[in-house]
Amino acid sequence: MNERPKVLVVYFTQTGQLKRIIDHVLAPLEGKADITFEQLVPVTPFPFPWGKQQFYDTMPESVRGVPRAIEPIKVDPNTHFDLVILAYQPWFLSPSQPTAAFLQSEAGKQLLKGKKVITLLGSRNMWLNAQEKVKQYLHQAGAQLVGNIVLVDKSPNLVSLITVLRWAFKGKKEATKYLPQAGVQENEILTSNRFAAPIENALTRQQWDTLHPQLLELNSVELLPNLVILENRGIKAFRYWAKFISEKGGPGASSRQGRVTMYRSLLLPGIVVLSPITFVSSVYQLNFRKKQLTQEVEYYKGIALR
Hints:
The protein has two domains: 6-223, Flavodoxin domain (Rossmann fold, 3-Layer(aba) Sandwich), CATH 3.40.50; 226-299, no CATH class. Helix content is 50%, strand content 13%. It has 13 helices and seven strands. A five-stranded parallel beta sheet has the order 2-1-3-6-7. A hairpin with a 2-residue loop joins strand 4 and strand 5. The chain crosses the membrane at residues 266-286.
């Protein structure tokens, strides 16, 4: 009798949403694969709900890829796995710090070397730069990205911004009279088990070239053109502020809190102003630079690394 394929799931979650997504995606594989879970644990935990100043003070190191340390992983890095599922969420258009810490660690690199990897994201709506960074880390580790699944909050951009900040700062996810529930919509989570069939097929046949196209047919990655433009603008601003704040010290340093407060006071008004401008710009580009923008969208929906 053939052995069941071995799958490792590496993840970090604060709210539990990402673990629910993982469980629904993998539910149909129960009994068909041996699944090992590796939860990433920061040495010094990140709070939830967040304090506002600490939340914004986490931005520079997230963007610059200088993460807080995590506890040693429990799984032996030399263990054979047919597939690794790396489940993560973006922080400030970058991989969450525990994810970045794992990908930069020697144990993480050793574990990922030569492995097939599927990335699984639970996100507000902007994840492109985070995924680009993850693709770079995987390439450096000698891993092969074979698929990407992205579940996002499909509420309008400014609505999802309000609900996610309410969730982050007050711990309130539920809908109100005027606002929808925060996070990825429940139906998106419940129907994510549709991705298990192509994953099982690839595991059984050990044929990976067709996996991502099959996932895309199931709407594993949906991307609005205006978000490509908005995020490209946003990450440039984040990189500037990350450098500007870091010049005054490390995480939590009192010497940099004035700059953190300045950044904090400008971020939300900047998003409110940029969102409609970016939407108009995307309409313009779809009309006059359609080929270039369409190519960008197709690239980000794929798994190749430039």
